[in-house]
């Protein structure tokens, strides 16, 4: 809806009272005082796309990145008269940006690479797509393409768990053998492709004097 609003000037729905009220109701729910410390979204254990619980819970970066994108869209959609709401959203965006922590502790970490520790590739890709993350993540994927991508779709997480840890975490599910649940998710390639498409023009925008668009050439 935000994209259509930016492109189509005649798209008047976002200026309607119904749209404004809907956004404000959603914000009042998401930004209520029921949050822990920061205005971020808490995920329950077992919320992962993998069959069995693999310890994926808490403040997942993919959820926070999507929340961050939604807040930024809300700022664009709210009318200028809603100054108080816009101020609250901007403050929450800053909190979400400060929440992820950046470390460089892995052996395969390249000198100019990085990633959000404890999060799957899904979260890191969405974080890049929403501009919540730094360019170092895409640099890591490029420099370690053989390990992280190889000859099949981008791995969900790296490295794979195995042995006793695998038996405890996955419940010895035959569908969740070592590496089987780490690969073949095409949505990761979609996100990585979208991130690459976004990264290339971003690096050229200033040099190209903020060109209006890039054609296929």
Automatic annotation (TrEMBL):
This is Alkaline/neutral invertase. GO terms for biological process: sucrose catabolic process. Belongs to the glycosyl hydrolase 100 family. PANTHER family: ALKALINE_NEUTRAL INVERTASE B-RELATED, PTHR31916. Keywords: Carbohydrate metabolism, Glycosidase, Hydrolase. Invertase that cleaves sucrose into glucose and fructose. GO terms for molecular function: endo-alpha-N-acetylgalactosaminidase activity; sucrose alpha-glucosidase activity. InterPro entries: 6-hairpin_glycosidase_sf, Glyco_hydro_100. It catalyses: Hydrolysis of terminal non-reducing beta-D-fructofuranoside residues in beta-D-fructofuranosides. Its EC number is 3.2.1.26. It comes from Arabidopsis lyrata subsp. lyrata (Lyre-leaved rock-cress). Transmembrane segments: none annotated.
